[in-house]
């Protein structure tokens, strides 16, 4: 009998999650919001206050847009590394593998980060992508257009729920021609070594797919295939696993929206745990304002109170956020410190 060599655990050790003291809380339920219901605006506000995160159904995004993009993305990530790398290295746009940003963060993930300007995405795709890179670009642009429309509807319902008279006060930032929104395709490949490294009969350790962080933009709109892995952090620091649903979307409150609501909404910390045996694919639209936009609390939400944050532009915050580590509290530098 030939004995198989044990996997090189050191090769995957940088990706093993240190659980720390915060455990999983599987009892909390993720808020579910039906966009077709008349009370959606109030439900959105409550979800943003309690979780900074919620699930959307009856969203109006055509299912064929979703399935077409997933098919194209699976095709891309199935290519040999030499072909995928023609779209990289990510700087920040393009193809990346395991390295997340320039500051030392790593994850068991490969990805494509793209601009949302329809004229730019073809240039970010590899020349060797199958026989028809135009088909991939078309699928990306159809999907982004539909998801952006849904995101604007959510932001307008949010404004209604907050009783802000100008209901497009948030959505206009995504609709602006200079909107600094981006789109990301993440692929978390299986890692059989993870199961083997745990030893016979032992529970395999968790592997970091994408480390804990908040999103710096206004909102993020996430959709994944039917493989689990996403977790969000609650106010007490415990983690809630998010059951996957490939026909629905999940919405994250971003740091910018936390500031614009003067802390009433909290940006949600989240992470992805990779699987030893299953491949997870996610697609995320990050809705951001123009680079020159001043990020300040909305006047309607600070009547009689002071702003909790210093004034800054999206360019200034983005520059600061992308020079930090994933898990850093990026807003801490922009909070007002009470006089002693």
Task: Describe the fold and architecture.
The structure is a single chain. The chain is an alpha+beta fold. The chain is 26% helix and 22% strand. The protein contains nine helices and 14 strands. It has helices at residues 40-50, 63-77, 81-84, 121-124, 133-161, 171-175, 192-197, 255-260, 314-321; strands at 32-34, 53-57, 94-100, 105-115, 182-188, 207-213, 219-224, 230-233, 239-241, 249-253, 270-274, 280-287, 294-295, 312-313. The strands form three sheets. The protein has an eight-stranded mixed β-sheet. Strand 1, helix 1 (40-50) and strand 2 (53-57) form a beta-alpha-beta unit. The longest helix has 29 residues, at 133-161. The chain is globular, with a radius of gyration of 20 Å. It starts with 31 loop residues before the first strand and ends in a 19-residue tail after the last helix. 41% of the residues are buried. GO terms for molecular function: gibberellin 2-beta-dioxygenase activity; metal ion binding. Belongs to the iron/ascorbate-dependent oxidoreductase family. GA2OX subfamily. InterPro entries: DIOX_N, IPNS-like_FE2OG_OXY, IPNS-like_sf, Iron_ascorbate_oxido_reductase, Oxoglu/Fe-dep_dioxygenase_dom. It catalyses: gibberellin A1 + 2-oxoglutarate + O2 = gibberellin A8 + succinate + CO2. Residues 178-289 form the Fe2OG dioxygenase domain.
